[in-house]
Design brief:
heterotrimer, A alpha/beta (321), B mainly alpha (257), C mainly alpha (255), A: D-Maltodextrin-Binding Protein, domain 2, 2 domains, five-stranded mixed beta sheet, 14 helices, C: 255 residues, MetI-like fold, elongated
């Protein structure tokens, strides 16, 4: 493990600071639940650059590293906006919770390197879903987007997903578990995929980019809020989206620029050296009915079917692109 | 403390184990970057402690812990006094309390998140619930152990229920209450950290998970060491406090004997 | 006899019933949001489905197996360690600082290193349960051994009892109430750690199901499994009290 001598916070002084918010304007406080992953870089960039303050918003992030507590917190009124993976959002909608998409967040890349990867042990000769039948594959959580994309790859490469045992292993432990033979494959997301190949490179190898091989560029995560909050305060969320999209532009102009990596390090605490080898996602602004329908259709194939409202009715006007 | 003055075989054993940690990591016996040498862990601990980040987080964790401990403990004492002195209250509410007691705290966190959110309210409530039960059990045991004559005396002199509880029963069963608090203290630290690990952006628990997810094993183990030392210190501190607070009690007991 | 015990339970059941009724009304009138708290009758129906279909058996057994294995291993090690530390001063000096330092570490914080050393399967789960059980039992055993009557020990020595014989027939019985008290505390901890380990390792058992139901927003199912867990805890505690009364029955009431 490399020593990190420079405090991440100091590195940020290199970023340009935008003009302070208008004097005398009271800021609307918006609590946003996030996960410390590269997907939320635009949100942090917009905060750092003062784009939310310029919209009269004060963003207060709450990180949950361990599990999906963001959406329950949204229902409980603890958050106004939640970053979450598409499958978890749709599972809530299926159970009657009125989540609405306010903005896109992250999607797969059209070409490698991508943000999800399937890793196996070298010499284990597991190259397809068919090879995995009767074996153990790790996902950080069952019934989320990581698992869904992984199972889609299993099916696409000739395997029966019901014959593959899913084991839940947290991302930080996945490389060790795979190298030690406790699992036979792992569905990794970044930065854990590239991290595992660096730290365990002599024992592990990548056999697939599951999203690219099943639905290239498909969606992964969005920002959502509650329907009644949107109906009452739609204008607040328009300001949120405007600020966020300026962050998206800033990030998209600087992919793999040191300034972007410094920003990501500051909120995720992942060392910069590791981020240099990490694949970043595509950062979309919009959410399309087609991409939501794609996830619903795929979910139905893997035991998560049910009755869903029409995708277009789930998307707020800010996410229409 | 006493062992510190005279380095015993026990401290040699700890030193040997720590040395084994260092050597096993240096030579990569575990075959994993997630097993850093002790020296690197201590360096991370020193850096984040001196940098002020860890002390700040620790302060928040301790605040939540003590807030929950005091709230839950106070509730435990009050309910314990009620249950033990007014049997009808126990008849009425005992079953409900007994049903809640065995639900493990990690299982209670998901529904609590739904009602109380992810912040201090939820965490302090969780810690309070944890502290409530040991204190309740001990208080009830204490009240039962209070000399019957103390109670009878109170009744003879016509002292009312609340004054009797406050001035006769409570002081007499204080050692039991303290024993309950000591059990609750150890549990409270654990539960505070668990609650912080699950949700929110606060405290040592969150730091531990964040470092784990950032692939920074030295910082993660530094936190574990910090928690071990903290728990050890808290226990020692509480024992000293208890001795002092109960001093008059023991003095009283000595006179009586 | 039976009617009296039923009668003594009645007020408690009545209050519990009133609380549930209040909850039901609170949900029906919209005072509590249905998405957060389904009405108790709906939870009861879900619970009935789980019970009637037998779906509850496998996860319940899986959790119970974990609790009992970890509890048995942890208790055995705790009693053995406590006896050894209480009887042999050299062992005490060797292990006491380590025990005192290890005891306060939140076991939840130990899960990542445990995963590294023991993997993600049963071994890890059993070890974390056993570790939680070990310390209270050990500390209580130690206290019990320390409290053994000096006069009795002298008598045993003059009768020429060997160490093993003295430990087995004098010290262990004398320390039994303490050991059992430690085991009772540990049983609660064992269930907590079992559920936590299941939540973290994400396989089988009640802990995983509760977390999984919450993540999938199947709130009714989540509460139904929580009730099964509460009843398991209540039953374990009751069972232990029964066993304790049996174990201590033959012993003369000393205090």
């Amino acid at each position: 493990m490399t020593q990190i001598t420079r405090r991440a916070g100091l590195a940020l002084t290199a970023l340009p600071l935008a003009a302070p918010p208008l004097v005398g304007q009271t800021l609307t406080r918006l609590r946003v639940s996030v996960i410390p992953v590269t997907d939320v870089a635009p949100l942090h960039a917009a905060m750092r650059l003062g784009h939310f303050a310029a919209e009269g918003l004060e963003i207060d992030t709450s990180t949950t590293a361990g599990g999906a507590t963001g959406l329950p917190g949204l229902v409980a009124g603890q958050f106004r906006v939640v970053f979450s993976n598409t499958v978890s959002i749709l599972l809530g909608i299926r159970e009657g919770l009125d989540f609405r998409f306010v903005a896109g967040a992250a999607a797969g890349n059209p070409a490698p390197p991508d943000i999800f990867a399937i890793l196996t042990r070298k010499g284990s000769n597991i190259r397809s879903g068919r090879d995995l039948e009767g074996k153990r594959i790790a996902s950080n959580t069952r019934n989320n987007i990581v698992w869904l994309r992984g199972m889609a790859w299993v099916e696409k490469t000739g395997g029966d997903w019901r014959k593959v045992t899913t084991v839940e292993v947290p991302f930080p432990q996945m490389a060790d578990a795979l190298a030690a033979g406790q699992i036979d494959a792992g569905i990794f997301s970044e930065p854990f995929a590239s991290g595992a190949l660096v730290s365990h490179g002599e024992r592990l190898e990548r056999v697939a980019w599951p999203i690219i091989e099943t639905a290239p560029g498909a969606t992964v995560a969005q920002y959502v809020t509650m329907k009644d909050d949107l109906e009452r305060n739609g204008e607040v969320f328009e300001r949120f989206a405007r600020g966020l999209f300026k962050g998206v532009d800033w990030v998209n102009e600087r992919r793999h620029d040191p300034a972007l990596l410094d920003l990501i390090t500051a909120f995720s605490r992942v060392p910069v050296e590791r981020l240099r080898q990490t694949a970043l996602p595509t950062y979309p602004k919009a959410v399309t009915p087609a991409e939501v329908q794609e996830v619903i259709t795929t979910m139905a194939r893997f035991g998560m079917g049910g009755r869903f409202p029409a995708p277009a009715s789930l998307i707020f006007r800010t996410a229409n692109g | 403390m006493r062992a510190l003055a005279r380095p015993s075989s026990g401290f040699l054993l700890i030193l040997a184990l720590l040395l084994l940690w260092e050597v096993s990591a240096r030579f990569d016996w575990m075959n994993s970057p997630n097993w850093p040498p002790l020296s690197v862990v201590l360096a991370a601990l020193a850096r984040d402690s001196l940098g002020g980040e860890l002390p700040l987080l620790l302060g928040g964790t301790l605040w939540r812990m003590f807030a929950g401990l005091l709230a839950g403990g106070a509730a435990g004492v009050i309910v314990g006094l009620l249950f033990a002195s007014l049997p009808v209250t126990r008849r009425l509410f005992g079953l409900t309390v007994e049903l809640i007691r065995p639900i493990p705290i990690p299982a209670i966190i998901p529904p609590l998140v739904l009602f109380l959110g992810l912040d201090n309210t939820m965490k302090v409530t969780v810690v309070g619930l944890t502290a409530f039960f040991p204190v309740l059990t001990n208080t009830m045991q204490g009240v039962r152990a209070v000399e019957a004559d103390a109670l009878a005396m109170g009744r003879t002199f016509g002292i009312g229920f609340w004054r009797r509880s406050l001035h006769i029963v409570l002081p007499a069963c204080l050692p039991y209450v303290f024993a309950g608090f000591r059990v609750a203290l150890a549990l409270a630290l654990v539960v505070t950290v668990v609650a912080e690990m699950i949700a929110g952006e606060q405290g040592v628990g969150h730091y531990l998970v964040l470092m784990q997810f950032a692939g920074r094993a030295p910082e993660m183990y530094a936190t574990v060491i910090l928690l071990a030392v903290l728990g050890y210190g808290l226990n020692r501190g509480f024992l000293a406090f208890e001795r002092r607070a109960l001093h008059w009690y023991f003095a009283l007991g000595a006179q009586r004997n | 006899m039976l009617s009296r015990s039923v009668l003594s339970w009645l007020p408690g059941l009545l209050v519990l019933g009133l609380i549930l009724l209040g909850l039901e009304l609170a949900v029906e009138t919209g005072w509590v949001r249905r998405a957060l708290m389904p009405p108790p009758t709906a939870i009861a129906l879900t619970l009935w489905d789980l019970l009637a279909s037998g779906e509850f058996v496998a996860p319940l057994l899986s959790t119970m197996e974990l609790v009992f294995t970890g509890f048995a291993i942890g208790s055995a090690l705790g009693i053995a360690g406590g006896l050894a530390m209480g009887w042999f001063p050299a062992v005490f000096r060797l292990l006491e600082p380590l025990v005192e330092l290890m005891r306060p570490i939140p076991k939840a914080a130990l899960v990542p290193p445990l995963m590294l050393f023991l993997g993600i399967g049963t071994t890890m789960k059993v070890t974390s349960v056993a570790l939680a059980v070990l310390f209270p039992v050990l500390v209580n055993t130690l206290q019990g051994v320390r409290g053994t009557d000096r006069v009795m020990l002298d008598a045993a020595r003059t009768h020429g009892w060997g160490t093993a014989h003295t430990l087995r027939h004098l010290v262990l019985p004398a320390a039994l109430p303490f050991i059992l008290a430690g085991m009772r505390i540990s049983l609660g901890l064992a269930l907590v750690l079992a559920v936590l380990a299941e939540m973290l390792s994400g396989q089988g058992g009640l802990g995983f199901l509760i977390l999984d139901m919450q993540r999938s927003f199947l709130i009714r199912q989540m509460y139904a499994w929580l009730i099964i867990l509460a009843v398991l805890g209540l039953a374990l505690n009751g069972l232990f009290l029964l066993a304790e009364r049996r174990a201590l029955h033959w012993q003369p009431q000393s205090n």
